[in-house]
Write a structure and sequence with these properties.
By secondary structure, this protein is α+β, with helices and mostly antiparallel strands. 61% of the residues lie in helices and 9% in strands. The chain contains 10 helices and 4 strands; from the N terminus they run ααααααααβαββαβ. It has a 4-stranded antiparallel β-sheet, with helices on one face. Helix 5 packs parallel to helix 8. It is elongated and about 80 Å long.
């Protein structure tokens, strides 16, 4: 009878078990993170819809992007005599307008991003359709309503973008362009689209309506760009007196970012120092700091936000 030997030593077997456990823990942690992001996406969709229905719609202001386009289409249908039993059609039309955008994004963006974007668009459609539009504006001040509504909507959209999704519409097209071309922002792309949109509003409505609607759109764009930190490029310089190998490996392995090493010398102390230069998004800064401080608590870290990067640079928008 043939005898089989155990080819693994006890130490190798323990390592294999530990490695398998680490893989399982990593998978569970990934599921937990994605679940949290999904909840944030739904929350962002609610905040966005709340800003629209409670601060913009009661005063007959018009949002930017596909939401504003959906509002214009709703106005046009109502003007032509189409009634929908007192139900506002903005959300439904917004959903319909986003169908071609989703199909185009499938060919250009990752599957995970598409799924989360679909969740965001669906959640926003549900909230903006079900949330009641007050007959009396919460604020009598039109300027205040435009600003508060813009801040809320910008925060909601920013939450969605920061969680690796998109609220759809012109922002989805902006994400696709931003994924391929550096030096642009989603707020800037949305602003260009809104110029055309509000020109149409100017032809249809009174000037104050257009001005307040445009102000709302500008506040949304600024707020969105501040919250969506993945679109902000950053330069980080790390000064350490330790062997930089461990820090380099962790940054490249955990963040997927390249590291440039420079040999330096302290002018006052004369001691040798290793300078590590990393380019990444502002969204990744916290993880980078945790990696560096865990290995070298005394490391000096200098951060510069909002820089322009030309050439090959991986933009992790999702």
């Amino acid at each position: 009878m043939k005898e089989y030997k155990n080819e693994l030593t006890t130490e190798e077997l323990v390592k294999k078990i530990n490695e398998r456990q680490r893989v399982e823990d990593a998978g569970k942690n990934a599921i937990k993170q994605e679940s949290q992001k999904t909840l944030i996406i739904i929350l962002g969709s609610f905040i966005y819809a709340f800003g629209i229905n409670f601060f913009i719609q009661p005063l007959n202001f018009y949002a930017g992007g596909f939401t504003g386009l959906a509002q214009l289409l709703t106005y046009g249908l109502s003007f032509m005599g189409f009634k929908f039993k007192n139900m506002d059609m903005t959300g439904i039309l917004y959903y319909v307008l986003n169908i071609p955008s989703i199909f185009f994004a499938i060919r250009n963006m990752r599957k995970r991003f598409i799924v989360k974007t679909f969740i965001a668009i669906s959640a926003f459609t549900i909230f903006v359709t079900l949330l009641p539009i007050p007959k009396v504006p919460l604020f009598n001040d039109k300027l205040g309503s435009a600003i508060v509504g813009g801040i809320l909507s910008g925060i909601g959209i920013g939450f969605i973008l920061r969680s690796g999704a998109c609220d759809g519409g012109i922002d989805l097209w902006g994400m696709i362009v931003l994924n391929k071309k550096a030096g642009v922002s989603i707020g800037g792309i949305a602003g260009a689209f809104n110029i055309l949109l509000y020109f149409v509003c100017f032809l249809l409505f009174d000037i104050p309506t257009v001005i307040y609607s445009l102000l709302y759109s500008l506040v949304v764009s600024v707020t969105c760009d501040r919250v969506h930190t993945q679109a902000i490029n950053s330069q980080v310089m790390i000064l350490t007196k330790q062997d930089p190998y461990k820090i380099e490996v962790e940054i490249m392995g955990c963040l997927g970012r390249g590291v440039t090493r420079i040999k330096g010398n302290g002018a006052f102390t004369g001691e040798d120092v290793n300078i590590l230069m990393v380019y990444l998004s502002k969204h990744e800064i916290l993880r980078l700091r945790m990696i560096v401080k865990k290995i070298d608590p005394k490391a000096f870290i200098a951060i510069n936000h909002g820089i322009r990067v030309d050439g090959f640079f991986l933009r992790k928008l999702t």
